[in-house]
UniProtKB/TrEMBL annotation:
Every Metallo-beta-lactamase domain range: 132-336
Keywords: Membrane, Transmembrane, Transmembrane helix
Protein name: L-ascorbate metabolism protein UlaG (Beta-lactamase superfamily)
Transmembrane segments: 25-44
Record lineage: Bacteria, Pseudomonadati, Bacteroidota, Bacteroidia, Marinilabiliales
Gene Ontology CC annotations of this record: cytoplasm
Length: 391
């Protein structure tokens, strides 16, 4: 009897020992998971960036006719679809941004890989580089202007909205930049890591209203940030830059939609007049811009991201051509394509549709390969995407 009781106690102690070990392991796993989750939360919070409070926005922007003090949001020039028949379509859901795109090319893009040593010490009077999507360097009047710098993915986590192909330039290999221009704060136009990298280099930043708070939170000195509302301008040496309206929206989370402004830009140098559409749907504001600020020697125009389900978000191919007519531009430089799957297009669908329509309307396109330096209107470019195998 004594032996049986002792044996039972031994078994009980053994079981308790095992349970204590399991508890310790579970506790450590829980601690690690909490630390990991906390790290992700802090990382995502940093990616989101800061914005002004409702009270601050109402004080700053309350007098603007494109800002509502009731909702604390900026307002698009047109709220109804420009083409009402294009209201059908699908929203595939956010989960697809975590997946490898079925619309990506099967082979790498042709590209010229660059380092900072391959840029001239003095920027040209007129030249451009395209690094994918909306990331462009414009050299104008001896100044180097960088638009919407994004060199990795287009989301708050590295696994979200990955590029089809690597950038031809690493952010660490950027040449000396004089001015960074941001069109709006969506992830495919404003990359936290790149802003942090550029923050302490004495570069000037030009952004739409409200976006400056995000840059300050990432380390850009306030004195280096100029915020513009629509129809406001910045004089940068010999260059006059005017922020102009667009039909779009802003925000980096579900809770800050339209709490910062978005913009297109007219960039007028000594001899060249440039337009950058940013992201916009088509509307009557474009013809007004063309009449007041055109004609343009070159227009950077977004061509991809259109979908029947959201007709005001981006330009449809025929609207790209109409914009060029409205702007009275000599040259069309397509941007916002060939880098991210944003609207269920085969990667080369938009560029081919725009190219076909441009040819029908005698509009000359500038379509360099990634990383190629071109003088628009002088350097010949080709429809390189036609010979690239893809889905």
């Amino acid at each position: 009897m004594f032996d049986r009781t002792e044996n039972n106690n031994t078994k009980t102690n053994y079981i308790l020992s095992i349970m204590r070990k399991i508890f310790k392991v579970a506790l450590w796993v829980l601690i690690v998971l909490l630390i990991f989750a906390g790290g992700i939360a802090l990382y995502v919070k940093d990616q989101l960036g800061s914005i002004d409070s409702l009270e601050e926005r109402n004080v700053k922007y309350g007098g603007l006719n494109y800002y509502s003090t009731e909702t604390g949001e900026f307002i698009s020039p047109e709220k109804l679809p420009h083409y009402p028949e294009r209201t059908t379509g699908g929203d595939p859901g956010f989960s697809r941004f975590f997946k490898t795109s079925p619309y990506a090319p099967e082979t790498p893009f042709p590209k010229k890989m660059l380092t900072k040593n391959e840029f001239s010490k003095t920027p040209a009077d007129f030249a451009t580089y395209w690094f994918g999507h909306s990331t462009v360097i414009l050299e104008l009047d001896g100044k180097r202007i960088l638009f919407d710098p994004v060199f990795k993915n287009a989301g708050p986590l590295p696994i979200i909205t990955r590029r089809y192909d690597i950038s031809p330039l690493k952010r660490e290999e950027l040449p000396k930049i004089d001015l960074v221009i941001i069109t709006h704060d969506h992830y495919d136009h404003l990359e936290t890591a790149t802003i942090k990298y550029l923050a302490d280099k004495g570069i000037e930043f030009l952004v739409p209203l409200g976006v400056g708070a995000r840059l300050e939170g990432w380390g850009v000195p306030k004195k280096n940030i100029t915020e513009l509302g629509w129809e406001q301008e910045m004089i940068f040496d010999s260059i006059t830059i005017t922020a102009l309206p667009g039909i779009h929206y802003s925000g980096r989370s579900n809770s800050d939609r339209n709490q910062t402004l978005w913009a297109s830009y007219a960039i007028k140098g000594k001899e060249k007049n440039i337009f950058n559409s940013g992201d916009t749907g088509y509307g009557k504001h474009l013809k007004g811009i063309g009449e007041k600020y055109g004609p343009f020697d070159l227009a950077f125009v977004e061509i991809d991201g259109w979908n029947n389900g959201w007709p005001l978000t981006h330009l449809f191919p025929d609207q790209v051509i109409q914009l060029c007519k409205d702007m009275n531009t000599k040259l069309l430089f397509p941007t916002h394509w060939g880098t991210f799957d944003l609207a269920l297009h085969p990667w080369n669908e938009s560029i081919q549709m725009v190219a076909d329509r441009a040819a029908e309307n005698d509009i000359e396109m500038v379509t360099p390969i990634l990383g190629e330096k071109v003088i628009p209107g002088v350097t010949p470019t080709s429809n390189w995407w036609i010979t690239l195998s893809g889905k």
